[in-house]
């Protein structure tokens, strides 16, 4: 046989195998998706801005789509119905966490993790219960509101000292979000606004994990925490110790909480401020509400319940810029059938919440920052309406949501109420770069640089 014909036939074998497998398989097919090349699959169709690419592909292939990367199958849900199937109807089967081999969120020595726990095992269950009752319950959060208000007043003090100077807004509020969490657990600040303090290396460590996907040396981190001897606030730590968690496991848990909770909250605040700078009419409405309800006082948590426009601004920011645009990747614990398609065991599952939030068939004029759309809307953060679940839903729903939805509005309101803000270098608000950069979380590509001026 002519070698050319022979090699062409050889190349066709995988296609024939796939064809016959599909014809004779008893299972329904995989969800539709773009053509996958042998071995590399859809690798060359992907890129860094995965949320955009997946949204465009879903327009062609539908709300439940599959991609292949080598042997790995990835399923993407891109509509409220598909999200409901993944996060509610098949929540149990799809409640594993998919962790890429390169990202070492699970310490191999401990074989222990929380957000990165590969399945909902006893460790994970124990941690969820303790977090819910001893860190994020309404009672605990209420008893710690002085911590958040103190940290926010330090933030306002620091920004006051920077009047007329350019500040990197995201990095500045990041310090406050970190110290809120470190004080809630240990009664200590991890670092100050100059980056000095016991947790000074923490930022570098988290950037390595979250943005660069690098394998950091966690052994530097554990002594920082264990060295603290768990002083101060004891309830959360006592509950963990009582349940038999070791110091190393507790350190790993704190690292998980810091990774999941601090960047996400600072990003939302940064995006919200960027949108307020671009939409001065919204900024003025928000200011009017704050002035009406609070007068010249500092913003307190007790004010938040009376600030519906502030809440709408936060919700609108989370619609356009969910820090987890694809939520956190899940993993199929077993093969199951969803919307008439087969999802094989160990598939990676993504929910494109970013695409759902920008879908014109769900949200009118979706690219406009229009908080008013949330004023008379029943959409909330509970994860029951699948057109809007920035905190996820089901078993793996964000446990930090009760804290996040207190601290983000508190800080945003304080920034708006206490300062006038100007863009650096005389930039006009229409020139503000709103491009994003997606690396696990959705960052602003150009950090927001603003100049504060205290309001009288
Ligand atoms: C605006 C802020 C935040 C947003 C938008 C957010 C969003 C999310 C999302 C989408 C998930 C994945 C849910 C799923 O798989 O269905 C998640 C998981 C998680 N979040 Fe948050 N989060 C925020 C703040 C926080 C805070 C403040 C903490 C804690 C201090 C936190 C701790 C966690 C943890 C531990 C997980 C993993 C839960 C698990 O796998 O069981 N998050 N978050």
TrEMBL record:
Cofactor: heme
Keyword Transferase: no
A GO MF label: oxidoreductase activity, acting on paired donors, with incorporation or reduction of molecular oxygen
Keywords carried by this UniProt record: Heme, Iron, Metal-binding, Monooxygenase, Oxidoreductase
Top-level division of the source organism's lineage: Eukaryota
Binding site for heme: 398
InterPro entries referenced in this protein's UniProt entry, alphabetically: Cyt_P450 (IPR001128), Cyt_P450_CS (IPR017972), Cyt_P450_E_grp-I (IPR002401), Cyt_P450_sf (IPR036396)
Record-linked Pfam families: p450 (PF00067)
Similarity comment: family membership: Belongs to the cytochrome P450 family.
Name listed for the protein in its UniProt record: Cytochrome P450
Originating organism: Quercus lobata (Valley oak)
């Amino acid at each position: 046989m002519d070698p050319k014909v022979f090699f062409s036939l050889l190349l066709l074998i995988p296609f024939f195998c796939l064809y016959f497998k599909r014809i004779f398989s008893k299972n329904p097919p995989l969800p539709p998706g773009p053509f996958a090349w042998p071995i590399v699959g859809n690798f060359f169709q992907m890129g860094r801005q995965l949320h955009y690419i997946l949204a465009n592909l879903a327009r062609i292939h539908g709300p439940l789509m599959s991609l292949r990367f080598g042997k790995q199958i990835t399923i993407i849900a891109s509509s409220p119905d598909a999200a409901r199937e993944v996060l509610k109807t098949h929540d149990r089967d799809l409640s594993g966490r998919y962790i890429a081999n390169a990202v070492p969120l699970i310490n191999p020595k401990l074989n222990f993790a929380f957000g990165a726990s590969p399945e909902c095992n006893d460790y994970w269950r124990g941690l969820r219960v303790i977090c819910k009752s001893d860190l994020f319950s309404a009672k605990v959060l209420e008893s710690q509101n002085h911590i958040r208000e103190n940290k926010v007043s330090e933030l306002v003090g620091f920004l006051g000292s920077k009047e007329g100077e350019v500040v990197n807004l995201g990095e500045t509020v990041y310090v406050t979000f970190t110290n809120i969490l470190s004080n809630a657990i240990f009664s200590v600040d991890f670092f100050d606004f100059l980056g000095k303090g016991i947790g000074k290396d923490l930022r570098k460590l988290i950037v390595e994990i979250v943005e660069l996907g690098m394998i950091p040396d966690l052994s530097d981190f554990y002594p920082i925490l264990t060295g603290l001897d768990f002083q101060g606030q004891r309830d959360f730590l006592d509950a963990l110790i009582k349940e038999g968690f070791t110091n190393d496991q507790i350190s790993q848990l704190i690292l998980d909480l810091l990774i999941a909770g601090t960047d996400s909250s600072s990003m939302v605040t940064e995006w919200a401020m960027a949108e307020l700078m671009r939409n001065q009419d919204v900024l003025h409405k928000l200011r009017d509400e704050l002035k009406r309800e609070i007068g010249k006082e500092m913003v307190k948590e007790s004010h938040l319940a009376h600030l519906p426009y502030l809440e709408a601004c936060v919700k609108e920011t989370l619609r356009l810029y969910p820090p987890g645009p694809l939520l956190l990747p899940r993993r199929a614990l077993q093969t199951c059938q969803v919307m008439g398609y087969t999802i094989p065991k160990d598939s990676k599952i993504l929910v494109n919440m970013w695409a759902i939030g920008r879908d014109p068939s769900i949200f009118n004029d979706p690219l406009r920052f229009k908080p008013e759309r949330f004023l008379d809307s029943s959409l909330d953060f509970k994860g029951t309406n699948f057109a809007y679940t920035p905190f996820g839903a089901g078993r793996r729903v964000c446990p930090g949501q009760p804290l996040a939805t207190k601290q983000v509005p508190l800080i945003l309101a304080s920034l708006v109420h206490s300062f006038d803000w100007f863009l650096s270098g005389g930039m006009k608000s229409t020139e503000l770069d709103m491009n994003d950069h997606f690396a696990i979380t959705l960052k602003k590509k150009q950090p927001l640089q603003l100049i504060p001026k205290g309001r009288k």
